[in-house]
Amino acid sequence: MIKRGRKEGWLNRPIEAFSAWAEFNSVKFNGIRIGPMPGLEHRGSTVIATRTLSGGKEDPLVIVPKDLIISRDNVDFFAKSDRHLKQVLEAAGDFGRTPRGAILIFLLLLATNACPEIENVGVLNPLSEYIKFLPDELLPTFWSEEEQELLTGTSLKPAIRAKMNSLLREFELLRTATESITWCAKYWWDEDDGYLTFQDWMLVDAMYRSRALDFPGIGDCMCPCVDMANHASGQETAALYEADDDGNGLLLLRDQKDISDSGEVSITYGDEKGACENIFSYGFIEDSVTSARAIFLDLTVPDDDPLRTAKLAINTAAPGFRISEVNDRVDWESDFIWLVVINEEDGLDFKLRQTVDGQRDIQAFWKEHELNETSILKDVLSQDPLWDIYQLRAIVLLQSRIEAQLETLQNFGNPAPEVSVGDVRYRLAERLRHLEYETLQKASISFEDQKGALIQSETVRRYLGLTEDIDDAEEVDFS
């Protein structure tokens, strides 16, 4: 529906008409316009200065009326006068009450309303026209299988797989929830004449994922005009976004930040985001980036762990660990790892509990201390006399996982014949592999240092039965 609308023109308005839309809907511009940068049209539209802008001396560059912000609350407001939107939101249940679920459903209703073959579905509003100015965001979820193979060994490849599985679950949830609604059955789900496809769900996800901004006082939302600004990090960020006391969206030039006439006004999408996340959500890596910044690697409980099934059943944390690099310093964090490295001999125990509805679930205990959340386990273990032992086990396991990832990156072969080495996606994948490889190498060295320091611990030496001479310590199986 959406892709066809782009091709046929009913969902593809020229950006030159955008200023008229903005003016008609009371968006106020101060010294800026929306459009492509001359000579950089391939980057799409952005915010461009129409005169010299002086930081600290300008009124807001953009004021977006609060009624135009696509937020969870505003979707509810539109649903009050749009029975079709209300029907779908209510049918979607808990998913329709989340910011992401509500906004994606709202975008889908806007596209449905715009389809010329669909009559009397949805209510026209200013945002019905706004989405027609948004380009298709060709994020990695739209890469071909051959192109995704270029990501072998990076943290992006499993992230794409997980995202596609999540999108499929959401799409099937939407289908199951709404197929009994008459107009949905006719226009969305009819086997022969229905217009809605899984790719439409992928497209509204990409629209939201690439433009969602966390506005103070509003939360995750899409703010027309402001969400067309491109990203620049650090001192290169030209402007900030926030809401005023009335809930309107503002774009504010940073103090002491001057922009020349026809210069670009950028915002930050999040300086702390890693190279993987930037490709995943926005489809690019900044030219100035020299570090992967953040990498998430998966972990699992070993198959030979007798408590594996119980551990996985009670786990509430992401099954992996996050490596972060700031100023050449590598750190890591994980709630899951602590569940992996402890066992029954240490004090971990599981009991079956009967619930009020007659079902049975598993309760986890650490030395009689109930573990309701995996996130509390690190704090509990840090008070244990054997804390250094648990840290050593964790470091050894994480280092082994990193070495396996490095080996996969090293063994990556040549791209498939269908992939052009000059293609932007090839260059993105190649750069991501390089950045993550360097960060993982630094992490491996850092972990080796941490392991060496922990081996010197009196607690570790006593636990492992090491003598004063610890030259052979590396031969001990720390797992």
TrEMBL record:
Molecular function (GO) terms for this protein are:
protein-lysine N-methyltransferase activity
| InterPro entries per UniProt | SET_dom_sf (IPR046341), SETD3_SETD6_MTase (IPR050600)
**What does UniProt list as this organism's lineage?**
Eukaryota, Fungi, Dikarya, Ascomycota, Pezizomycotina
Q: What is the species of this protein?
A: Lophiostoma macrostomum CBS 122681
Q: Which GO terms describe its cellular component?
A: nucleus
| PANTHER family registered for this protein in UniProt | SET DOMAIN-CONTAINING PROTEIN 8, UNCHARACTERIZED PUTATIVE METHYLTRANSFERASE
Q: Gene3D superfamilies in the record, alphabetically?
A: set domain protein methyltransferase, domain 1 (3.90.1410.10)
Designated name of the protein? SET domain-containing protein
